[in-house]
Amino acid sequence: MRSQANGKGLLSAIPEAVRATACANGASPFADAQVVEVHQFGPEREPVGIPLVFTLQKEELDESHVRAAIHERLKGVLGDLHPEAYTLRVRTHAPGGSLSYELEWQQAADAAEVSRCLALHSTNESNVTSGRHLTGGLDLHQCLHLWSETEQLDDDNLWYCPRCKRHQRAWKQLSLYRAPPILIIHLKRFQYTSWFRDKIDVLVEFPLRSLELDFAGTLVVYDLYAVSHHMGSLGSGHYTASCYRNSCSRWFYFDDAYVSALPDNDEEVAKRIVSPSAYILFYQRRLSADIPNGNHGMPAITSS
């Protein structure tokens, strides 16, 4: 939505000279007496950690004071911002939870109308649900079904049509048409949105043996032979691995320079491996002679 209430007056108070300077350097200035956290974001980048916070007394919330505060603050940080940075996140305390604002620069038909160059989006963070808070868990076959479903691209991800040379709404579908000898499944453990970045700690159930998939009517069976684990958060974490060794028919756990043998039965191994830390799964296709006859009703993940 467009800026409202006290935000509208502050945004419209930004002079054209400061607006042009901020646009050229990828910054979106905003002032609010109740701002407690502001981060600069860029594509596929962590927040640079430079606070753009303005604290003004209520009697100073006029055009001259806001202009001066923004100008002085921008002079000190514009040189440190990455040129790819494009939005600001502003969080304020409000009844019922935190209120976040995201500001983006837009091209204005009339450059003199500064208020038209800014879009203000808000959301109540108390109502935002992160993937890490989901309950119950998922099954790997459910994930494969969702991965192969038809998806409509939204306005933020339009498809460029080579015929009409324009970006258009389109439908996208991902499919596997051939059964690879090695199937690597990368579980989505990190969530990136306009509002937050987070680690997803949802348990995904997956089999150690006999992952059965239907490729165009042909049953293909895979067995797990390695798992990459990630422990920790988005900002910091640790990677370990579990691997199966054919020569001794045993699972081993690798943690940096330390290697330990896992229990010698699938049930105990599954308790250690099938966990919210599982990040990348490595499956090996069985030979045709080792596959039992008949389709066991497992889902197909291909399309005609």
Task: Explain this structure.
It is a single chain. The relative contact order is 0.12. The chain is built from five helices and 19 strands. It folds into two domains: 5-127, no CATH class; 132-290, Cathepsin B, Chain A (Alpha-Beta Complex). Helices cover 16% and strands 34% of the residues. The strands form six sheets. Strands 10, 14, 15, 16, 17, 18 and 19 form a seven-stranded antiparallel sheet that branches. Mean pLDDT is 62; it is low at 1-52, 77-135 and 293-304. It is an alpha+beta fold and 304 residues long.
- The appropriate CATH architecture of the largest domain is Alpha-Beta Complex
Tally the beta strands. 19
Number of helices: 5
Overall mean pLDDT stands at 62
Tally of separate domains: 2
Shape call? flat
The span between the termini is 42 Å
What is the CATH top level name of the largest domain?
Answer: Alpha Beta
Name the structural class: alpha+beta
Strand fraction: 25-35%
Low-confidence stretches: 1-52, 77-135, 293-304
By oligomeric state, this entry counts as single chain
**Cα-based radius of gyration, to the nearest Å:** 26 Å
CATH superfamily of the largest domain: Cysteine proteinases
Order of helices and strands: HHEHEEEEHEEEEEEEEEEEEEHE
The percentage helix is: 10-25%
Largest sheet: number of strands, sense, barrel closure: 7 strands, antiparallel
- CATH fold title of the largest domain: Cathepsin B, Chain A
Organism: Cyanidiococcus yangmingshanensis
GO molecular function: cysteine-type deubiquitinase activity
EC number: 3.4.19.12
InterPro entries: Papain-like_cys_pep_sf (IPR038765), Peptidase_C19_UCH (IPR001394), Ub_carboxyl-term_hydrolase (IPR050185), USP (IPR028889), USP_CS (IPR018200)
